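Record format v2
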Amino acid sequence: MTMTSSRRAVVTLPEDTQILITREFDAPARLVYRAWTTPELVRRWWSGDRGEMTSAEIDLRVGGTWRFVMKANAGFEVAFHGEYREIVPAGRIVSTEVFEGMPDAEALSTITFTEADGRTTMSILVQHSSQEHRDAHINSGMEDGMQEALDRLEEVARSLR
Amino acid sequence: MARAATTADAFNAVAEPRRREILDLLAGGERPVNDLVALLGLAQPLVSKHLRVLREVGLVEVRGDGRQRMYRLNAGPLKPIYDWVRSYEQAWSRRFDRLDTVLEELKAEEDGENDHDE
């Protein structure tokens, strides 16, 4: 499998209160949608390298809720939840999104799956209610990144003992 | 590390949608202010005001060219914004790399089922 530039996740900030994440997948939209909406599949990818998922609950219907819990490598737990507002199978999911560590900052995320020639471009538009909340959301990603870097550094340091 | 909160930084300058439009227009090459006024459909004083903010943070450079003042993009000050977003982007990239693995398995499963049907 070759990595092309289109396979890279691209994050842009279209408005002061928005985050847009796009990525192309070498699979049809129905499969990307399935991997995104099936708890046992979500558990396998959602935490990335940052930890282990301890819970993924998905009640996939308008008005239904979802909740993801991850135990980060650093030991602490982080949880997110939301409510589905719009569901178009293999097409579009609109849901609220709350990081439970910052419960006032409810965002609205719109995930769009666009298939062409068996490949799917997924875009996630996260709409925050204020620039502060948007920035805090991005900073949380950055802290994770730094944490990982520190963890790696620790590994390297240990290997040198 | 949080972004700088001063008003005179690139973050603040690009927070305004019209100023981002100006940067997009200048990304295509140097332009006189009249061009920008025409393309943006804004009054000249307003365009000049936006250009002044962009110049203050170094995103736009100006040079006199006869009677015309020519504006061009200097993308350097955008780097801190790029860096700020990049580690968030990396977290998503790692997550999506795992999703790729899940998708490969789902595709293989489907292929297997199709073979079985034949």
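Chain B touches chain A through 30 residues (CB under 8 Å).
The radius of gyration of chain B is 23 Å.
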